Amino acid sequence: MTVGSCPFGASTHDVDVLHERMRTEGCGVHRAVLPDGSQAWVVTGYDAVTRLLTDTAVSAAKADSTTGFRGNRLPPALDANLLNLDGPAHRRLRTLAAEAFGPRHHRFHEQIVADTVRELVADLPSDGPIDLMNGLCEPLPARVTGTLLGLPPEQLGAFRDASAPLLRSDASHEQDALRRSMMTLWGLISAALADKRRTPGQDLLSVWIAARDGQDRLTEDELVSLAFLTIIGGFENTISSTAFVLDELVRSHQGHAREMLDRPSEFAALTRRLIREAAPMNYALRRFPLTDIEINGVVIPRGHTVFASLRSAHLDPAAHGRPDLVFGRGRHYCLGAKLAELQADHAARAVLEKYPHLRVAGPREEYRLRESWMTYSLAELTVSTGVGDADRGAVRWLDSRP
């Protein structure tokens, strides 16, 4: 059993090596020290991680911590969100919230994604170096989420600006900025809620306002907390997965992907596969055992902080042919998984359709990464519309096809 920092330090392109080493070292269950100096356990391997994510004796609620963990000290209305709840309270809130992401709403969601992608890609330069991170990957989830929540178009810029501090993993020292961000978002969401009560639509807030489970309904605080959860849970993962899909398509699958542009279902299947191969989340959010639990012969005490290494589970040969864990598993499976896939899919298709020839700027290992140990996420993504010598043969082949 290792005692050390494990891969909780600065972002690194060697993240697979680090998580594989944790999985294969000893019993695969480790003690570690988080960047803030607190103690944690790390569980690795497909079977152990799956158990941790699905075991009802393991809670996601920080109230079940016995070591003093209190999270980001959000206002109570925001703190009581699905990421910080478990048991009956979680089941009730998730049941009322889930309908807004159900199949009945997929066509509406996809139209918003398609419209947003089209607008962003239209604004990208026609040639030269194309900054896909700042021009597409980063603004996409903010604009989609704001529109889905029902904010008017003229407020989407303020919504994106206010959301930015919540998405920086190194923003713990920016308490004033975080408070201003939350107050601005709170005001925007509260105003939108008031508007949707008067004039409901197909947006998430309207669906949540109308949600009923018998006589039960969502409170005002719960509506606001769900909106914040959609922001926090949907932005970073979507930015990461969209960037990796674009980079990998241009880098390794461009010819094959272009052949499927007129076959949307096949293109979407390729996009989903690439998201699962990239597996941008290194860890699931922390868990707290409700009683002492034993994993691979190691006893983890009640209430201690435990992280499940999703990356090690993804790399584990035992995962072959079994359901992936990219969006989690069990009762905390990501409600917005389909929405994240749609954004990566539409962004990739639109970029390939606009630019007949694309090249990556260099090896992926030379890209800067976001400062986050929770995710493996690119901080930059630039492509070129020029044709290099190595690409000319492939392009001539594409151009000469019947």
Please sum up the structure shown:
The chain is of the alpha+beta class and 402 residues long.
Tags for this model:
single chain; 402 residues; alpha+beta; Cytochrome p450; three-stranded antiparallel beta sheet; disordered C terminus
Secondary-structure blueprint of this entry?
Blueprint (H helix, E strand, L loop, with lengths): L2 E2 L10 H10 L4 E5 L5 E5 L2 H9 L3 E2 L16 H4 L7 H12 L7 H17 L6 E3 H6 L1 H11 L6 H8 L11 H24 L5 H7 L9 H33 L1 H6 L4 H15 L9 E2 L3 E3 L2 E3 L5 E3 L1 H6 L21 H18 L4 E2 L21 E3 L4 H11 L3
Parallel strand pairs: 1-2, 3-9
Antiparallel strand pairs: 2-3, 4-6, 5-11, 7-8, 10-11
Helix pairs in contact: 5-7, 5-15, 7-8, 7-11, 8-9, 9-11, 11-13, 11-15, 13-15
Structural notes for this entry:
The protein is 49% helix and 8% strand. By secondary structure, it is α+β, with helices and mostly antiparallel strands. The protein has one domain: Cytochrome p450 (Orthogonal Bundle), CATH 1.10.630.10. β2 and β3 form a beta hairpin. α5 (106-122) packs parallel to α15 (337-354) and α13 (264-278) crosses α15 (337-354). It comes from Nocardia macrotermitis. Its EC number is 1.14.15.33.
